[in-house]
Write a structure and sequence with these properties.
Number of strands: 13
Strand content: 25-35%
Helix content: 25-40%
Shape: globular
Largest sheet: 9 strands, mixed
């Protein structure tokens, strides 16, 4: 069984960026921090960190483990806080930030249920697709859709969303159906400008990872705009299934190249610190975890 001290030391190293800085931040010795991480790697049988004399980085296994370790430590902290404050009331204003499309489609129907269950809590909900600074901008919770969490933040995974390549039957009847990512260069592309990799799209298929540079006909920071243009037979989109899943199910859009899959992203509720987390925030996060346990887009 994993030990929490080993997990804490590993997370401290990632957060601080080095073993020396982690030792300074935690009050432990560098030797102790190094031993904890080495013991953790030995127990797991994988290398979590790549170390050189000049830099340190997470391995691929380390990236996956780091995301889950953050969730586990956050859950343990919340369990402790809930037990210690089980009689506390959820009161006050909650400032929440969420992505525009996801917020409108899947969070907006939840807010009335939450305030009905917690009549002493009020909500201030802001929707936009930029990454806000929780501390500087005064948000209690933000919803993030990403592969992994920012190591400076704490969070809970609410759900996953699969990124789907698709187009309308009308477009495909006119322009043909691509069978390999390389063929996307000859197609009309409707691109979302906030993708972390920009116009370099990546797929995992029979030959491993395939990267392709697309030339968009429409570039937009709105997933809804991409979807609307796709439904109007204007091109191919790469969008999350929480947006286009229902269109694929009803046949208005067709998933392309099923042997070449794009990424699966986590949907997280993130907050600045797990220490002294207000009851209103804990209640909101628990509510969202429960409400999105079986996502409707599945």
């Amino acid at each position: 069984m994993l030990e929490t001290q080993q997990l804490s030391s590993f997370l401290a190293v990632v957060r601080a960026g080095s073993f020396v800085a982690a030792a300074d931040a935690t009050g432990l010795s560098k030797a102790a921090i190094s031993r904890h991480v080495a013991e953790l790697e030995a127990r797991l049988g994988v290398r979590l960190l790549h170390r050189t004399t000049r830099r340190m980085s997470l391995s691929e296994d380390g990236q996956r483990f780091h995301a889950r370790a953050l969730e586990l430590m956050a859950a343990l902290s919340e369990l402790e806080a809930d037990t210690a404050s089980s009689g506390g009331a959820a009161t006050g204003l909650l400032r929440i930030n969420a992505p525009l499309t996801f917020g409108n489609l899947h969070l907006a129907p939840l807010w009335p249920r939450f305030i009905a269950a917690h009549p002493d809590v009020s909500l201030d909900v802001t929707l936009n697709d930029r990454v806000v600074d929780l501390v500087d901008e005064g948000y209690d919770v933000a919803i993030r859709i990403a592969r992994t969490l920012d190591p400076q933040l704490v969070g809970r995974r609410l759900a996953d969303t699969r990124i789907v390549l698709c187009a309308s039957p009308g477009y495909l009847a006119t322009r043909g159906t691509p069978t390999h990512p390389r063929e996307l260069a000859a197609h009309q592309i409707l691109a979302y400008s906030y993708w972390a990799t920009g116009d370099d799209w990546s797929f995992n298929g029979p030959e491993g990872e395939t990267r392709v540079r697309v030339t968009p006909r429409i570039h937009t920071n709105s997933g809804d705009t991409c979807r609307a243009a796709a439904l109007d037979d204007k091109g191919i989109v790469l969008q999350p299934d929480f947006l286009v899943g229902p269109d694929v199910k009803r046949g208005a859009l067709v998933e392309l190249m099923p042997d070449y899959r794009s990424s699966v992203l986590g949907i997280f509720a993130v907050y600045a610190t797990r220490k002294h987390l207000p009851m209103k925030t804990r209640r909101l996060i628990d509510f969202l975890v429960d409400a999105l346990r079986a996502p409707v887009w599945r």
